[in-house]
Amino acid sequence: MSKTQKIEFADPADLVIVGLDTKDDVTHELFDERINTPVDENLVKNIMVYGVLQPVIVREEAGKKHVVDGRQRVRAAREAVVRQSDAGQVKVRVPYTTHGVQGADSVRLTGVMVSANEQRKSDEILARAAKASRMLALGASLEEVSIAFGRSTVTIRQWTKLLESSPLLLAAVRHELIAISAAHEVAKYPKDEQPQVLRDLQTQAKGGRVTETLAKAYRQANGDSTASAASSATATGTGTVVKLNNPNLSDAGRKAMEAAKSGSTANTPAPKGTKSKPLQSGVKRTWLRAALKSQAANSLTDEQKGVLQWIASGLTTKGAWYDKFQQAVEAELSAKGKAAK
């Protein structure tokens, strides 16, 4: 093994993250905007249990090791070290290599950063679900599997339930004909009913990909009071077809569909025993999406368009203030949820 391929270990505090440990900005070849995102709590837990398994790539310069790839692992390892110190445990050491970057120019360094990320893409969802199921079969607890995959226990349960679904639904997931979140909704039906539900949803999607909103609307329209009436109204507003003449349609579901069809924003009474949930009021997302394509939208700034796009579709522009705001809020809510357990 050549010198550049040798794997060594370092204290995570000794590995320099450009822009975080230095005053450099986006003009530096090793700057990555993701250093400003919240540290991944699941990754921290994973490292505390298993350590850092994949070496980070560094470039040694003036006696310091600058991270080329692996910034999130280093940040999570630093947090793990703090917690381990408080608990009197042995501190995590981060494996690193300089392979392929010593003496590299800016173009090659950027290529290494991109390539390393591409080669690290996660397994396809069903493969991950199968691995999680095998871990559970071998005696691992749900919490252990959750830590190993860096996902919540709820997600692990959803994965394993998805594996028990009908072959037709699994094929739709594999070929990306249905969103994973929508597939979880379909998986809540009895296995023998899932093929028909999927066919109905694909018909309503009119050749497009079946979305979670559409799947929830279908459940609500067919008598499932746990699905959001607001989601049902939104789905119908986008031109989907929910079966209003279904004899099993709940009163709440029927009223939600009829209200959406007529354009009403009145509150829809919830089924007995559930909390009332108002339909979306004010400017509708469907209207907003159409408005963004209008000539009038040309007078808006990029930031204004970005905010409206975020409201209309939930999509944010990477690095924008509302993207950072959303990430910060999600991290805060996640921390509160964990503290409440």
Description:
The chain is of the alpha/beta class and 341 residues long. The protein has three domains: 3-119, Conserved hypothetical protein from pyrococcus furiosus pfu- 392566-001, ParB domain (Alpha-Beta Complex), CATH 3.90.1530; 165-282, no CATH class; 287-340, no CATH class. Helix content is 50%, strand content 6%. Strands 1-5-3-4-2 form a five-stranded mixed β-sheet. The two termini are 48 Å apart.
Number of domains: 3
pLDDT averaged over residues: 77
Ranges where pLDDT stays below 50 over 5 or more residues in a row are 229-250, 252-282
Q: Round the Cα radius of gyration to an integer and report it.
A: 24 Å
What characterizes the major β-sheet? Answer: 5 strands, mixed
**Strand portion, in percent?**
5-15%
Q: Could you tell me the number of beta strands?
A: 5
- The tally of helices reads 15
Q: What is the distance, rounded to the nearest whole angstrom, between the alpha carbons of the first and last residues?
A: 48 Å
Helix/sheet category: alpha/beta
Secondary structure: helix percent? 40-55%
**H/E series, N to C?**
EEHEEHEHHHHHHHHHHHHH
How do the strands line up in the largest sheet? Answer: 1-5-3-4-2
Query: What is the global morphology?
Result: globular
Please provide a brief summary of the model.
By secondary structure, the chain is of the alpha/beta class. Helix content is 50%, strand content 6%.
